[in-house]
Amino acid sequence: MIVKKISLAVTVLFSLSMFSQETAEVSREIKPEVKLSYLDSIKSTFKKDDLATKVDSLWMNELVSLDIYDDLTKDIQTINKDVTVDEELPTELLKQRLAAMNAKSPFEIEYNQGLENIIKSFLKNRKKSFSRLMALSEYYFPIFEETFAKEKIPLEIKYLAVVESALNPKAVSQMGATGLWQFMYGTGKQYALKIDSYIDERSDPLKATAACSNYMTKMFNVFNDWELVLASYNSGPGNVTKAIRRSGGKTGYWDIRNYLPKETQGYVPAFYATMYLFEYHKEHGINPERAVIKNFETDTVAVKNQMSFKQIADLLDMPQSQLQLLNPSYKLNVVPAYQGEQNFLRLPKDKIATFVSNEDKIYAYVKHESENRTIPTRLAMKIAPKGKPVRDTKSLEVSKDKEIKDIQFYKVQKGDNLGSIADKYNVNISDLKKWNNLKSNAIALGKSLKIKSDIDTSAKVIKEPKVLPAVEKNTEEAVASAEDNDKISIQTVEYVVLAGDNLGSIAKKFGTTIADLKELNDLSSNNIGLGKTLVVSKIVTEIHEPVSTAIASTSVDSFKKKAPSTKTAAEDYYVKKGDSLYSISKKYPGVTISDIKKWNGIKDEDIKPGMKLKING
Questions:
Q1: Distance CA 63, CA 69 (A)
Q2: Contact at 8 Å (CB) between 558 and 550?
Q3: Residues of the signal sequence (predicted)?
Q4: pTM exceeding the 0.85 threshold for the entire prediction
Q5: In Å, how far are 90, 102, 195 from 96, measured between CA atoms?
């Protein structure tokens, strides 16, 4: 009997203990949960490809780096063949190597003092440049060689692209010649290269190389000499025929060289010097930098609907710079969709697999974005008058004596957080905390929250835009609609050009692209003056108004009503297999690659699985 009573007492105590634990769990505070955006929810359903490759971002930056192009162009135009250069290369050894090159080439490669001086000048001043060029050549040369082999063009012509553009498909000369092969607008049209507002096929490696091959074939049929073909490519066939006449009918390049334009006089020797350095780079201690992506590791896919590079980069977790490198012919970083025509997107093969496996979801996301698209930032800049901040205090600020007419109560349910509740009632998180005397974002399950709303729903609290670290900042607010009741806040980050700067180095410094810099500053070329003030970024933040459409949004999730205004607490992230700094930064709104590198003392972008990273520290 006593045993039964003791057992009963223990059972009752155990039950009470369990009940108290359950009650404690119910009342336990709920930590804020990160609300998935539409983009993240789409990507979470993607079929993953295990063959993901790591992108070497340093090599990718060669796309936006025009310093080699500028330097080589200047060399070819100003190099003096008659000035002896002090560089260790015995003349007799050079003669032997040139003779060996000549034996296996259809070009007439002969030694002369001018050529020796140019080769030594390149060796003395351009070793590092050629190391980078050789990395790029691993991607472009197979494209050139395949096309030239089909048309029976000497494969050595591939070195001409180094002389012309430093293997940069975005290179634009002062005269407007564009692309790897530097076609002028008229010549591009003559050889059926498409040039319109969206596309410039002079920058397309495949199509521009085919046009170059076509030109070379025609010029060889005219001159029957490959050196004269090169000279005509630079100065035009008319200047070559004039030089032949002025020389008394001689047809050898070195015989008519002094009668050609000054730039062309250094053009063919620069071509031979480039060929020599590529052929004998090991002997001179030039070590090619590593090129991660090669042409055979990429593939193309037909794009059915218009898509921006940003949309593609967000969906496939890849840098926009990589898309620009692989698809340089798209001028506005947009793949257009023309009726009756197909446009193609070149991607790494692992990204092709992801794209093709999830096409329907990708196009659904693009359609969703187009339906919720806001006015582009640049258009907002144009329609927004510059000047002092403009505020309509009557419609934007809540009057002190305004009577609050409507108070509602909301009971916190499982899965709720302040952000989701604020979105549901179209209010600010800060107001929710003030109305309910909350000191943090934590809310208890079952708690009743007070929600206040005005009869005059036009009164809205203006959200402060997030400010990025900047060299210089200018802030302006402007009216951007015909009815004067849609407002935006504009913040610009400016940079003053210093000696040695170019658009590529500035873009790299601020984590942007040359195309964006040119668009922000209305630049028609890549030339920038010393001391010029450049806008390196613009933030356009919308001030929400009733019965008005959004004006501009810099967020990936521009279709969302509101963005969380509270700062994310510091947390640790453990690197997973396949992660890159770019993909990690996309997981945290407002966090950039530069932030992660600064918080964790990372100098390059080399991270390893299992590595602990501090986020928002």
A1: 11
A2: yes
A3: 1-24
A4: no
A5: 10, 10, 46
